[in-house]
Amino acid sequence: MNGKDLINRRGNRKKKGVYITVFIFLIVIVTTTLSIAPSGMTVYVAGDGKGNFNCNGTDDQIEINQALAYVAEHPEFTTVHLKGPNTYVISDSIFIGTDTILEGDPTAVVKLKDKADWPVVKPLITHMDSAGTSNITIKGFEIDGNHDGNAEKKKGAGYYNLIHFVNSTNIQVHDMYMHDSHGDGLKVENSSNIQFYDNIVYKLGHDGLYGIQSQYLEAWNNTITCRTNSGLRVWDSNHVKFHDNTIDSFYHWSAGGPGIQIQKSAAVMDDIEVYNNTIHKTYGPGIWLLGYGTYPLKEAQNVHIYHNTFYKTGTNPSIDWVGGIVTSGFNNTLIENNVFDGTYHAAVVLMYPTDRSIDITPKGTGYTTIVRNNIITNTERRKSKSIGTGFGVVNYLPETHSLVLENNCFYNNVAGNYRNAASTSDIYANPLFANKKENDYHLRSSGGRWNGETWVKDIKSSPCIDAGYSSSDYSNEPEDNGKRINIGRYGNTEEASKSGVMPGYVAWWNQIFSPEWRIFRILLRAFLLFYFKIKI
Fold first, then answer.
1. Beta-bridge partner residues of 450
2. DSSP secondary structure string, 295-343?
3. Strand, coil or helix: 406
4. What is the SS3 assignment for 23?
5. Please, which residues have CB within 8 angstroms of residue 505's CB and are 6 or more apart in sequence?
6. CB of 296 within 8 A of CB of 265?
7. What is the mean pLDDT of each run of 10 residues along the chain (536 residues)?
8. Can you tell me whether residue 264 is helix, strand or coil?
9. Edge-to-edge, what's the strand order for the sheet holding 232-235?
10. Which of 247, 316, 234 is nearest to 276 (CA)?
11. What are phi and psi of 66, to 5 degrees?
12. What is the predicted pLDDT for the residue at 100?
């Protein structure tokens, strides 16, 4: 072998070494890229280093926004998932784009940092494009507004809204836990097709859901504890359904206003339904309807409030506009088949507050409210300026507003049944609730009462069975339904108590083995065992 061959071999070995090094480098690059690339249609954000984007507990909105930007730039991806358990502390807003799902584990928490010092109207989560967005879903995780860590800001003044969208369509927020904020849970303006459901909302600084000049809003199956303002609210919005929610307040000077607020000043509001809700122990009224300014009657009409349960609403000791439902400025409002039990001031009150900084007087006349097929019991005097309160229904605006009362049941209201109102078809009797202490407002019936699991029979039947308005629909009531609607919460529903009677001995036999007779059975056993040595 001559020197030239040796040099060639050494050169070939060097080239092979370079090729091998480059090959290994490419393998590392590809492997690393694949390891951080999103899988499926989802991009993962984590706090344990195992996500596509990984946070460290400080300024975590940076990585979350990077993940959302990645989805926005790659239409084959749809979802950003926040992995838990982890708390993502943010010092700036999270921005979400069109056609995007932001979801998380129930143990994933987005939390506002301490002393964030954000300007007013800056939300925790909002849209990328200030002109608006569409087709957004936010679901499954927790948002902690960290009120106590930012106590220098005022509640209800526009600070730190949790989610805020403007000019947007097709927004869903569900299965969220939203709590301890200064502002709203979900605020939407000039938007449409909004769905807010299956959320737990606790002690926010303003409204749980707040829709302004928006259309087609629906909220259902939410559990809301109010602080500062209302659970659900719409202002100058239409085509609204609020149903199957449970709303209350904690008792505190800052506990806020109504369970549900319906407010009109400029836009048409003529398609609003509120039904199947349980509203109790609210600081303000259970529901507040407020229309003010000058407008034709047809622009604020046809609100339908039905199949709701109100108890102990209006606990605020500092305001006079409390009750079950407080309303003014709306026409042809139909309040039917509800139960009002132990509300403060009255079940239905026609009035508006006079302590506002702006004029909220309705300028028109001829506003009518129809109260039909309701049970109104145990009304208490309000805690502020209590003298002259505690009626079943009250009209403080008889010159411009009228009450039409049809087939309601009044019982045990501390001041009486009417003030500036009258009826020729109402009844006045104990409605015989199944279990008032447990807030079971089904009607006792010897023909059959639904107890949550099966049909049972009572010795006595409620006078509210088959006593409703003769033209009301009863078709959803089970047979035997007497071909007439029941008064109360369950009239014209599948859980309406049945008509009919049964033999006395059958009623007594069924009653003896009912939960209400448990103490009697215990005493009977003791008597038989002690005197006759009979053990049963």
1. 455
2. --GGGBB-EEEES-EEES----SS-S--SSEEEES-BSEEEES-EEES-
3. strand
4. helix
5. none
6. no
7. 48 51 43 47 96 97 98 96 98 98 98 97 95 95 97 92 98 98 97 98 96 98 94 98 95 79 97 98 96 95 98 93 97 98 98 85 94 98 94 97 98 97 97 97 96 93 97 97 97 95 58 70 78 64
8. strand
9. 94-96, 125-127, 163-166, 186-189, 209-212, 232-235, 260-264, 287-291, 325-328, 348-350, 391-395, 416-419
10. 247
11. -65, -40
12. 97
Phi, psi of 328 (to 5 degrees): -160, 150
Q: To 5 degrees, how large is the angle CA 348–CA 349–CA 350?
A: 125
Degrees, nearest 5: CA angle 142-148-154: 105
Task: Select from 474, 368, 377, 371 the least CA-distant residue to 425.
Answer: 371
Q: What is the pLDDT of residue 469?
A: 98
Burial class (CB in 10 A: 0-12, 13-18, 19+), 139: middle
Q: 344 is written with which tokens?
A: 């403060």
Question: How far does Cα 185 stand from its chain's mean position?
Answer: 11
Structure tokens at 439: 């807030």
Secondary structure of 188-205 as H, E, C letters: EECCEEEEEECCEEECCC
**What is the per-residue pLDDT for 509?**
60
Nearest to 473 by CA among 348, 336, 277: 336
Are 38 and 72 contacting, i.e. CB atoms less than 8 angstroms apart? no
Q: Which residue is associated with the tokens 């104990």?
A: 430
CA dist 299 → 263, 265, 271, 450 (Å)? 12, 10, 10, 40
Two structure tokens written together for 534: 């009979």
**In terms of Cα–Cα distance, which of 449, 441, 140, 460 is closest to 307?**
441
DSSP run (H or E) holding 395: strand 391-395
CA distance 516 to 480: 25
CB atoms within 10 A of CB 456: 18
For residues 104 and 142, give the distance between their C-alpha atoms in angstroms, rounded to a whole number. Answer: 8
